[in-house]
Amino acid sequence: MAGLAGARKAISNCVAQPVVNLLVRTPLTPNLVSWLGFWITLGAAALIGTNHLLAAGIVVLAAGLFDMLDGALARATNRVTRFGGVLDSTLDRLSEAALLLAILVIFVRERQVGESILVGLAMISSFTVSYLRSRMEAMGIDGNVGLFTRPERVIILALGLMLSQFQYVLVVALSIITFFSFLTAGQRLFYAWYKTRNSP
Q1: Percentage of the chain surpassing pLDDT 70?
Q2: Which end of the chain is more exposed for a tag (fewer CB within 10 A), N or C?
């Protein structure tokens, strides 16, 4: 699992680095980039709530790019701070909640009970994965392990929104997010147990 995390980080750096090379020449700070990504995500949530799902999916991908940029910019400009990490994590959770709640509005409006429950499960599973990372890293364990982390969730959700004109595609995307997030939570729990099995 640690190898998968390393591969994920390498891909993220490859995608973000050309943009970061431009951002280092601007007055933008990593925290401001985090806020920009958050506000873009709120725009995507507004598009979802008004049934502009294709546009929302595109905007979600754009916001996901900002999510990669803030940390990369902080490292490139030697402005990594503990508060920056807390802010980034907080805004990430709020962003995911905003998107899923906007989708929930659609399903509630259409009186789709099963789909509404699925949104709730997707939120619970996603937040569990993120919570485990936080707890593990507080214990000095690499928490960015597992098959399905935030970038994967963002990509699947964006694809589900962009292809939502096809019946049940968004439901399939939410099902994938839910299943693999719970699977990843299990992987992280096992990894945490493995790393602490000899600890008192």
Answers
A1: 92
A2: C
Q: Pick the catalytic residue from 67, 70, 88, 92.
A: 92
The angle formed by the CA atoms of residues 172, 14 and 150, to the nearest 5 degrees, is 35
Provide the CB-side half-sphere exposure for 131 (13 A, CA). Answer: 10
Q: How far apart are CA 58 and CA 138, in angstroms?
A: 34
| pLDDT tens digits, 89-104 | 899 999 999 999 999 9
| Domains identified in the chain and CATH numbers | 2-196 (1.20.120.1760)
In angstroms, the CA 31 to CA 80 distance is 10
Helices (H), 81-168: 82-109, 113-138, 150-162
Nearest in space to 165 (alpha carbons), one of 44, 60, 50, 54: 54
Tokens of residue 187, six digits:
């992987």
Instruction: Give the rounded distance of the alpha carbon of 192 from its chain centre.
Output: 21
For 46-103, what is each residue's pLDDT tens digit? 999 999 999 999 999 988 888 878 777 777 778 878 888 888 889 999 999 999 999 9
Q: How far apart are the first and last CA of the chain?
A: 24
pTM score: 0.88
The CB-side HSE value for 73 (13 A sphere, CA atoms) comes to: 23
CA pair distance 140, 92, nearest whole angstrom: 21
Let me know if 92 is a catalytic residue. Answer: yes
